[in-house]
Amino acid sequence: MRAHWVHGVLLAGLVLAAGPPARAQVSHWPVAPDRARELLRSAPFEIRGEKKTEHGTSGPRRLELYFPRQKLSLRAKWKPVPPSGDGINNAPRKEVAADRVQEILLDEAHYVAAPTVLRCIPMQSLPASIRPPQSNVKGANCVLGTLSLWIEDVSVPEQLWSPKRFESDPAYAAAMADLNFFTYLVHHRDGREGNVLVSSNPDDPRAFAIDNGISFNSRVFNYFVMNWHKVRVPALRRSSIERLRALTPEQVDSLAVVAEFRLGENGQMVEVPPGVNLGPEDGARLQPGVVQMGLTTRELKKLRERIRELLEDVDAGKIQTF
C-alpha cells in the first residue's frame, strides 16, 4: 500500500505537537449516534413528511420521523433495498457493514458516517408518494430499506483535502485522519462531489462519508474522481491504530451477517439475531421468508488484508500517529 508521508517534518509540526484537539460542540447529530441507531432499528415512528434528497443517484428520500414514545423528531435518509438485495450503486448491506466497522473501531465522538440500519416499513405507513405497488420482499407487506440518521449542519466542501492545512491545523488533521481511517478500512471508492460533506462551522472542520454503498472492494466504482480507499493522510490517530490492533477475529467475522429478517405476523419482516451464514459467497441472501445480508468471504479476506497492511505501514514508520 502506498501512503504519502513527510520525513520527520510532521513530527515537529503543529499537528503532532499539539495532538488531537477537543471537538467543537456543533449539533451534527440531533441525538447521540448510538441511540439514533437503536431508535431507527426498532422504535415505533410516524412519517410526517418526505422529500427527494439533494444528492444521490439511487432515489434516496429524506423522511421526517416522529417517535411518539420518546416525543422526538428526527430526519433520516431512506433507500429501499433493490429486489435482488444488491444494486450497482445501492448496496444496503455495505452501508450497514460500514456503519458496523465505525461502531467497532471509532469512538462515537469521532464517527464519520451516519448510523445506518435496515428496517422494513409497513406498506400502509409509507406516504403515497413513495409507496410502491408491492413489497420488495416476496410475500411481505412492508418495504425493506436502509434508514440513516440525517447529518445536520454540513455542506459540500470547495476543497476537501489540503496537505498543507493538515500540517498546520490540528482540528482539520484530526477530522481528515478519522475520515481516511474509516474510508481506507471500508475501501470507499465513490468520492464524487456530495458523497463527502464537511461541517458548516469553520471552527469544527469535521468530514463525513454519507454514501458508502460502493465499498468493500466493489468491482464497479467511480474511476473519474479522487477516491479515498487509500491512506492519503500522513498520520492517523494513535487511539484508532490501537483499537485496530485490539480487533479480534470474531469481530471481523461478525461482518459476515450484519442483518437478518424473517417473515412474521401480518406479513411483516422482523429483524432477528444473526443466524448461520446462509451463503458466504453471496452478500444478499434471499430465501422464502428470510432476508440475510453481510459481507462475502472475498470481501472479508480483503478487509483482513487492509488491516494487516495498515498496521505494517505504521510499524515501519510509513504512516505516523498522533
Give a written overview of the molecule.
The protein has helices at residues 9-12, 14-18, 33-42, 92-105, 163-168, 170-186, 238-245, 249-253, 297-315; strands spanning 46-52, 61-67, 72-80, 116-122, 142-149, 154-155, 196-199, 207-209, 235-236, 259-263, 269-271, 284-287, 290-293, 320-321. It is an alpha+beta fold. The chain has a domain at 9-28 and 85-114 and 153-321. β10 and β11 form a beta hairpin. It starts with 8 loop residues before the first helix and ends with a strand. 41% of the residues are buried.
SSE layout:
Elements: H1 9-12, H2 14-18, H3 33-42, E1 46-52, E2 61-67, E3 72-80, H4 92-105, E4 116-122, E5 142-149, E6 154-155, H5 163-168, H6 170-186, E7 196-199, E8 207-209, E9 235-236, H7 238-245, H8 249-253, E10 259-263, E11 269-271, E12 284-287, E13 290-293, H9 297-315, E14 320-321
Parallel strand pairs: 9-14
Antiparallel strand pairs: 1-2, 2-3, 3-5, 4-5, 6-7, 7-8, 10-11, 10-13, 12-13
Q: Keywords for this structure?
A:
globular; disordered N terminus; 14 strands; alpha+beta; 5-stranded antiparallel sheet; 4-stranded antiparallel sheet; 322 residues; 27% helix
